Amino acid sequence: MQASPPAGTGVCFSAARRWRMAETVFWLAAAATFFGLPGYHLLLTEIAIIGLFALSLDLILGFAGIASLGHAAFFGLGAYVAGLLGKHGWGDPLLGLAAGAGSAALLGFLTSFLVLRGSDLTRLVVTLGVALLLGEAANQAAWLTGGADGLQGVEIAPLLGRFEFDLFGRTAYAYCLVVTFVLFMVARQIVNSPFGLSVRAVRDNALRARAIGVPVNSRLVAIYTVAAAYAGIAGALLAQTTQFVSLDVLALHRSADVLLAVVIGGVGYLYGGLIGAVFLKVLQDVFAGLTPQYWTFWIGLVLVVLVLVGRERAVAGARDVVRRVVGIRRRTS
C-alpha cells in the first residue's frame, strides 16, 4: 500500500517551485549573451547543448543516484536519428527533436532494466557497455551512418519555416538556448514534484523507500527514461546545428566530459550541469587559444586543483578576491 503524502507537503512543493531572483538573473544573463556576444554564438551554442546534456545526466546521477559512464549512447542515438532525418528529406528541426527524444527514450527504457541490477560499479560497466556496443554498431553500419567518415549531406530546414541556420550560429544559438530553457523548466517541475521527492528518497535509501510504499524500480525506470530523452534532444541539437554527425558523439570522452561538467558544477543541483558546462567549455576555448598543443594539460591541472581545494572553498576564495578588487577600486576612485 502506497503511503499518502503528509500534511503540508503541498506547501513545501510550492516553496520549492517558487522562482528565485538568482535564477532570473542567470537566465537574463544567458539571454543577454545573444545580443552582447555576437562573435561567440558558435561557442555559446556548444555550451547550451553540453549544458542540456549535463542536465540529463544530473537527473539520474544527482537525483536518482545512478552513476553512468555511457550516457553518450542516448546523446549519439539522438544525433544520428536527427541527422538521418535531415539527410533523407525530413529536416524539420522540431521533428528531429521529437524523433531524437523518442528514440533515446526507447533505448533508455529498454536498458534501464539492466541498469537496475547490481551496485554502482555494475551500473558503470553496464552503461559503458551499452555505449560501446552502440558505437561499434554505428561504425559497422557505414552504409547507414557513414562510419568513420561521418554522416554527411544533412540538410536542416529553416526553423518554423522562417529562420535559416546561418554560418555565424545566430539562429542555432537562439534555438538551443530556448530548447534548453524549456526543458530546464520541465526538469525543475519534475524534481520539485512528489515524483521527484520519491526519486530522491530512493537515492538516499532504497530499502526505506520501498518500506514506505515507493515503487522503487518503476521510479528509477521512469527517471532514467526521461534523462535518456533529454540526452537524445541534446544530441539532436548538435546534429541540426552542425549538420554533421560522426562516431565522436558515441565516444567515451563524450560521457566523461559531461560527467566532469556535472561534478564541477555540483551534483544534485539542476544549475550545476549548466554552470559546469560553461566553466568547462570556456576553459577549453581559452587554453586551446593560448597553448593549442597542451590545452588538455592545463584543464587537467585546473580540475585537480578544484578537486583538492574543493568547489565550495574555491568559490568562496573567488568571491573574496572579487570583494578585495572591488574594495581597492572604490578606495582608489
Describe the secondary-structure layout:
Elements: H1 9-17, H2 21-36, H3 41-61, H4 72-87, H5 93-115, H6 120-140, H7 142-145, H8 170-191, H9 194-204, H10 206-211, H11 216-242, H12 252-265, H13 270-290, H14 295-309, H15 311-332
Helix pairs in contact: 2-8, 3-8, 3-11, 3-12, 3-13, 4-5, 4-6, 4-11, 5-11, 9-11, 12-13, 13-14
What can you see in these coordinates?
This protein is an all-alpha fold and 333 residues long. The chain has two domains: 9-290, Orthogonal Bundle (ABC transporter involved in vitamin B12 uptake, BtuC), CATH 1.10.3470; 292-333. Helix content is 74%, strand content 0%. It contains 15 helices and no strands. The chain has helices at residues 9-17, 21-36, 41-61, 72-87, 93-115, 120-140, 142-145, 170-191, 194-204, 206-211, 216-242, 252-265, 270-290, 295-309, 311-332. α3 (41-61) packs across α13 and α13 crosses α14. It is globular. The chain starts with 8 loop residues before the first helix and ends with a helix.
Average of pLDDT: 82
Structural class: mainly alpha
CATH architecture of the largest domain: Orthogonal Bundle
Strand content: under 5%
Low-confidence stretches: none
State the domain count: 2
Our measurement of the CA-to-CA distance between the termini, rounded to an integer number of angstroms, reads: 68 Å
Tell me the helix content. Answer: over 70%
Task: Give the beta-strand count.
Answer: 0
CATH topology of the largest domain: ABC transporter involved in vitamin B12 uptake, BtuC
Largest sheet: none
Counted by DSSP, the helix tally is: 15
Shape: globular
- Tell me the name of the CATH class of the largest domain: Mainly Alpha
What order do the helices and strands follow?
HHHHHHHHHHHHHHH
